[in-house]
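A reminder before we start the practical. When you read a complex entry, don't treat the lines as separate problems. The point of joint prediction is that each chain is placed relative to the others, so the output describes one connected object in space. Small molecules and nucleic acid strands, if listed, are placed in the same frame. In the example below there are two entries. Take a minute to note the order of the lines before looking further.
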Amino acid sequence: MHYAFHFNVVWDHWRELAEGAWLTIELSSLAMVIGLALATVCAYAKATGPAAVRWTIAAYVEVIRNTPFLVQIFIIYFSLPALGISVDANAAALAAMVVNFGAYGTEILRSGIESVAHGQIDAARALGLTRLQTFRHVVLFPALKTVFPALASQFILLMLASSVVSAISAVELTAVTNSLQSTTFRPFEFYFVATGLYLAMALGFRAIFGAIYWSVFMHGQRS
Amino acid sequence: MNRSFGLSEFIYLLAALRWTLLLSLIAFVGGGLVGFVIAILRTTNSRVLRLLTVGYIQLFQGTPVLMQLFLFYYGLAVLYNMQVDAWPAVALAFTLYAGAFLGEIWRGSIQAIPRTQWEASACLSLSYIQQLRFVILPQAMRLSIPPTVGFLVQLVKGTSIAAIIGFVELTRAGQLIVNVTFQPMIVYPIVAALYFAVCWPLSLFSRTLERRIDADLGIKRHL
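Here is the predicted structure of the whole assembly.
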């Protein structure tokens, strides 16, 4: 091995890398917020809608969960323009991430809603609570508690998977790293540091979500 | 003159699916060996071994697969002072990636076996290896099969990312066909359908096995 590592080149570009990391966080967070709204609608429709709606949503969830994210991106970015729906790379990346998160989120929320024992709902109704009150005071909190960890890890998976959108040259950390390494000819050093940044973001988010979970759901509870 | 998507292009995609499956198989077998060692080490009493294996799992689960691929690809190039073929880098990266996930899944299965099983087999004066071999692993194996099959789906989908560093498997083959036919609206949905044809049966199989084990253990789940 006769290779001299030059990490000082990477250090010279720390500002671009930090901006790239921030773009990744922005893109993932935005995708999660919109994706969660989509998932909520789908989970609700799947629980209460007519058979045709339920089947459509089930098909959506199965198709997304059993095909690669990269191919989903290609379909949105390259195939849809043929139907006259043309979007730029960043919008296509966001759309792909929303569609992807929406499918996994639907499954997670469904399991959360179903985890609330039916007897609890019956009891609340028998006590004269309205449907909305039952949902607000009896169903919502335990359901959120059940799904929170799963949603948190799904968000981290989404953030890590977002590196793949660099393949259609949407701008985020991986794309920034790609362009930096191609002008400096130091691929290993740049990817090494970018990997470290992703790891730091993943661990950081895990810690933040853990703290939120603990303070919201475990507060004052002995378990 | 443009080629259009026809039978020979479809056959080309099918032939490329072979590389997707072969890569998945290599990663699964290699990752299985790594994961087995990781799972065993993580359940030992040695603090150092546990910390090392936790670190390994965190590293591979907390960073994007694409970054792992880049690091192995350029890392091997640095090591051998030349541009290497994509095959060894891709195979090595996916093996270690699979090893981290399988290790974590199997650790969970081993730890799901009640403590009393260890104690009872120790009382029968079985050695540590014998306890694992005859008492713990046969039970843990049964529990581990559904999530392992589930991970296989994730692995097959994940190998699509190898397309980004130019490894020709199904997704890369789809890109190549699009480059000559200019028909992304036909090619990418077919690529997605081929992945679906592989992954969906595996997903269904995993769910069936899970339900069967739940039924045997007397766990009622809403499905």
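Discuss with your neighbour: Residues 14-48 of chain A form the longest helix (35 residues). What might explain this?
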